[in-house]
Fold this sequence. Notes:
By secondary structure, the protein is an alpha+beta fold. Helices cover 27% and strands 26% of the residues. The protein has two domains: 15-80 and 186-357, 3-Layer(aba) Sandwich (Aminopeptidase), CATH 3.40.630.10; 82-171, Beta Barrel (Elongation Factor Tu (Ef-tu), domain 3). The two termini are 19 Å apart. The protein has nine helices and 17 strands. The strands form three sheets. Strands 1-2-12-3-13-16-14-15 form an eight-stranded mixed sheet, with helices on both faces. It has a six-stranded antiparallel beta barrel with strand order 4-5-8-7-6-9. A three-stranded antiparallel sheet has the order 10-11-17.
Amino acid sequence: MAKKATTKGGKIITAKSEKFLEKYLNNASPTGHESSGQKMWLDYIRPYIDETIVDTYGTAVGVINPKAKYKVVLEAHADEIAWYIHYITAEGFIYVRRNGGSDHQIAPSKRVDIHTPKGIVKGLFGWPAIHTRNGGKEAPPTLKNIFLDVGAKDKEEVEKMGIHVGCVVTYEDQFMLLNKHWYVGRALDNRAGGFMIAEVARLLHERKIKLPFGLYLTNSVQEEIGLRGAQMIAERIKPDVALVTDVTHCTQTPMINKIEQGDIAAGKGPGITYGPAVQNNLLKRIIDTADDLKIPLQRMAASRATGTDTDAFAYSNAGVASALVSLPLRYMHTTVEMVHKQDVEDCIKLLLEVVQRIKAGEDFKYF
């Protein structure tokens, strides 16, 4: 018989925590330069944890029960896509390279923040006016033709601003609450996950829930360029279990092929993934818990890899029982990423209860 659900019903995201989410999303934390966001996240969870870890490359961990031998990871990734300055022309225009999976097609006319040793310098992605382009033979945006304009007369003036090759560029778009039910902004992939695991820490503390194992709330860096932060921290923590959060595509909007991408809808519950990296018995625990809580789940199948930090944890340390809980998201890797508030609530409730159902020493045997 399944354990009786202990997670209380009703809304669990408070006005205070929602303010943190807004501040957290508005802060830039591009891959390789996540430090300001990591400090903000640790400051938020510090009252609810016993110990912190920050590794060499910036992955941040809040630990509950650090002396316990059995270790459970609850993970998200902290980094967002961005651009690197790659080339500055004599005339003062700037060309870029991707830092992660940045979308060249959305760049034209976007305002940006250029992160320099002197601070933020404002700029924009320029684009020729429609009147000057050649009708049906227009060139689409590509990495070869998108460029930054900082209002400089030449390369020398650009460099006097503190801008140099290697500076990171992020979009300046800000958080928005849309139609009362949707969080909108850049970097919901996956700072929404960082928010969710932080809320689990808060709720465990406020409800005085004691765990019989060490819980490692892990906000990994460098996921967007190959799961690198998770690979490093998995070797350091050496967990017994890893519950990973990330976003997944909501496939209900125009121009998405459900045959290729699956049938997932924002507002209809968390997503779970079937695939080699997902340990079947841990996945069953998540499904049973969702059933008990009456939280709807949506199912996905991974071809080989999940493409998330689940893969890094699963294949570390001679194998770690790992599973993935995904938040449906619209318009991934744009400045208007959207998630439904109810899905965020349901993910938090589900993770909070699954954590409580894990027993110290449990090995989730394959058979």
